[in-house]
Design brief:
There is one protein chain. By secondary structure, the protein is an alpha+beta fold. It has 2 domains: about 140 residues, 60s Ribosomal Protein L30, Chain: A, CATH 3.30.1330; about 250 residues, Orthogonal Bundle (2-methylcitrate dehydratase PrpD). Helices cover about 55% and strands about 10% of the residues. It is built from 17 helices and 8 strands. A 6-stranded mixed sheet has the order 3-2-4-5-6-7. It has a two-stranded antiparallel sheet with strand order 1-8. Strand 4 and strand 5 form a beta hairpin. The radius of gyration is 21 Å and the shape is globular.
Length: about 425
């Protein structure tokens, strides 16, 4: 691959992964599927079914769905998608919901029963929504990632379909830490503004809202009151998650299908850059590093797993800040290795207010990893799961999370949903 082809490939990855979403992405994907199914049905809904992979159930169970008046869970996500969803907006399908529609949700949920089933699919991300009317029925299935619609049916007739095999896993094998740094160093200010302008605006807006309001466990506010090293970087990111996990009706730019990962990989870098008077160009380049390192780690881990995605994003944001401090391969690579050695193994037990605390911990571990190498200290190959070379260590994290923690994932979900 030539340098020009690699540069274009990195831009393509960023444009695909950094997209706006309203609310936690798993319930929003259900709402999106429900809006598609409603449009396909073409008549009043009298009952609904959802067949969901276990990780989707895990991530929808405890998080507030925006624009529902504080409702949680699968039935609420289906209801708001049917009542108010705009399918064309995909992960922003419920961004424009009227108060009248919100007020109608309790009556709708009382009237329309929802049956929920666990999928036995081999795909970690697999959701199907079935809507039934008096005369017809419709079915929508999404596999692999949050907007990847593989089938839309009405009365068994296909309105849309694509091969599931093409969607099972995202492949970003083109990425390496060395290549990411090369891409970032070549990025122009104009290209950076195009790629990261929305991420800076939207993710900082929800961070500021999280610090103003009363959301979740108020992790961000707590961090600001306590203080400490890199306090603002951790507090702003945690506050954004405080707000998002508690139903704040502001969108965020996601990373690897996750709003919390989008927040964690961007907000600390933005706060650090602004606190240190760093130019827009260098901020864009640092965001290229932080976002692409997060994506690189998540490629091996997978879209959903027992491994907390905020940990990968905390590594990414530390790599971005390390790039601003000393943009050498050695510093960035050892920051990544140190960081994953510190905090790998933090579990994902679904989307909920405590995600904000895990984000704060992930950022703290990442920045400790950076400070270690800046002071001449590092972990070496053979220290636990650390292998010689940053790419080998990243590959080991992928194996740990994707394969090694599969049993952990099943036990987490069993504990959360005993009847699943």
């Amino acid at each position: 691959m030539t340098d020009a082809e690699f540069f274009d490939a990195c831009k393509k990855v960023l444009k695909r992964e950094l997209v706006p979403a309203m609310g936690c992405t798993e319930p929003i994907a259900i709402a999106y599927a429900s809006a598609l199914a409603r449009d396909a049905l073409g008549e009043e809904v009298v009952s609904a079914e959802a067949v969901l992979s276990r990780n989707i159930i895990k991530n929808v169970k405890s998080v507030i769905v925006p624009h529902t008046g504080g409702l949680k869970g699968i039935a609420a996500a289906i209801a708001v998608g049917v009542v108010a969803g705009v399918a064309e907006k995909k992960l922003e399908a419920i961004s424009d919901v009227t108060q009248e529609q919100i007020d109608a949700l309790p009556e709708y949920m009382e009237r329309v029963p929802v049956a929920i089933f666990c999928s036995e699919s081999s795909f970690v991300f697999d959701l199907t929504v079935v809507l039934r009317g008096a005369k017809h029925w419709s079915r929508v299935r999404i596999v692999g990632k949050h907007t990847n619609v593989v089938s839309v049916e009405r009365d068994g007739l296909s309105l849309h379909s694509c091969e599931i095999a093409e969607t099972s896993e995202r492949s970003d094998a083109v990425l390496t830490v060395e290549g990411i740094l090369r891409f970032a160093s070549q990025l122009s200010e104009e290209e950076g503004a195009e790629l990261f302008g929305d991420q800076i605006e939207l993710n900082m807006r929800i961070a500021e809202e999280g610090l103003r309001g009363d959301y979740g466990a108020n992790i961000g506010k707590t961090l600001l009151s306590v203080g400490g090293t890199y306090c603002k970087e951790r507090a702003y990111a945690a506050a954004a998650s405080d707000a998002r996990m508690s139903g704040c009706e502001l969108p965020v730019v996601i990373n690897s299908g996750s709003g919390n990962q989008g927040i964690t990989s961007s907000v600390p870098v933005i706060v650090y850059a602004r606190s240190h008077g760093i130019s827009d160009l260098m901020l864009y380049r640092a965001l290229a590093v932080s976002n692409l390192v997060t994506i690189h780690l998540k490629t091996g881990i997978g879209t959903l797993s027992a491994y907390c995605g905020a940990i990968a994003a905390g590594v990414g944001c530390a790599a971005g800040i390390a790039f601003l401090v000393d943009n050498t391969f050695r510093t960035v690579a050892h920051t990544i290795v140190n960081a994953v050695a510190i905090n790998s193994g933090v579990i994902c037990d679904g989307a909920k207010p405590s995600c904000a605390a895990k984000i704060a911990s992930a950022i703290d571990a990442g920045l400790l990893g950076m400070e270690m190498i800046l002071h001449g200290n590092q972990f070496y190959g053979g220290d636990g799961i650390v292998r010689k070379g940053v790419e080998n260590t990243i590959a080991a994290i992928g194996c740990l999370a994707h394969d090694g923690m599969d049993g952990t994932d099943r036990e987490i979900i069993r504990l959360m949903t005993e009847d699943c």
